[in-house]
Amino acid sequence: MQQNAIALKVDNMNLTDAMGFSTPAAQSQSSLARITGTVIQEVADGKVASSPVFKIVTEENTLFARKVEVRLFAERQKWQRWDSENKTMQKTVMSTNLNHDMKDTLGTFNLGRPAGYIKDFAALPKDQQDLFRSVNRVKVLMGKAVLVDAFYEGGAPADGDDQEFAFIMDVKNRDSLKFIDGVVGKLMRNRINPAEHIISLSGQSNMLPSGNPYMVINASLGDFVGLQEDDNDTLQDFLDYINSSNEYVNTKWAENNVETIADNEKDIVSNIVDVEDFE
After folding, report:
1. pLDDT confidence tier of residue 26, bands split at 50, 70 and 90
2. Contact, 111 vs 79, CB < 8 A?
């Protein structure tokens, strides 16, 4: 086919809008390592024991460690709820606090719960109590970490995995948040940037009423190390991640929020019939 230097144009209209093609919505995916606290079963002295460990998932590997040393660069909060019907995690945008209405992927706010503290939870109807219990407060921690004595599943040591790397960690357990917030608060009161100081994270195994084990993260202060040469770039990467994730949630909110549909389109939408129902 012969190529001609001809430019398409439409009077008084953006070409992209005229043709109807759109740029795919930004996805809230990231190549940053993700750290979670978990409990694994191990054999010690001939007996099976529940061991609290950190699970680290990167693009290349899945590793485990009993202790992680971190420098924290940013934190945000969000609401999230597992949607068993659609097998996906519904969530809000990330913010510095939860005391205001936050758009979510359902096209509502706060995944159906009110912003801030609920004073008289017991007075609420049971269906509202169940909904609010299903929505978890999550603190998202972003920083750099070094694994201490990392190992692979099965126990083989992960040699060479002692370099500092950027990570994201979601924390929702109240006791874990209390311990982490405690050491961060101590740094802030002394006017020390958390990115300048090592925080040592370890774990302990507790039991739910159901009998299932879960991990509580303990936190303690390590050494003051100061800022590193590439820390500005690292902070910018985390801010880019926050913006990308929030852009994804805002796109989903606009897609699912009925109030964003023009009045003259609402009747059309309500009368649309899914053709698949007749196939």
Report:
1. very low
2. yes
Determine the pLDDT at residue 226.
95
| Run of H or E residues at 251 | helix 231-256
Name 205's Cβ contacts closer than 8 Å, sequence gap at least 6: 39, 50, 51, 52, 213, 214, 215, 216
Give, rounded to a whole angstrom, the gap between the first and last alpha carbons of the chain: 40
Closest CA to 148 of 213, 222, 46, 206: 222
pLDDT band at 279 (very low <50, low <70, confident <90, very high): very low
Residues near 36 by Cβ (< 8 Å), separated by ≥ 6? 54, 55, 57, 169, 170
Q: How far apart are CA 133 and CA 10, in angstroms?
A: 53
Q: Which residues contact 155 (CB under 8 A, 6 or more apart)?
A: 42
Q: Report the pLDDT value the prediction gives residue 162, as an integer from 0 to 100.
A: 76
Please give the average per-residue pLDDT across 82-87, as a whole number. 92
Structure tokens of 120? 């008289």
Pairing type for strands 47-57 and 33-44 reads antiparallel
Q: Return the bridge partners of 43, or none.
A: 48
- Bridging pattern class, strands 62-65 and 47-57: antiparallel
Query: Which one-letter DSSP state was computed for residue 62?
Result: E
Instruction: State the average pLDDT over residues 27-50.
Output: 80
Mean pLDDT of 45-58: 88
Helix (H) or strand (E) holding 258: none
Instruction: Identify the pLDDT of residue 209.
Output: 84
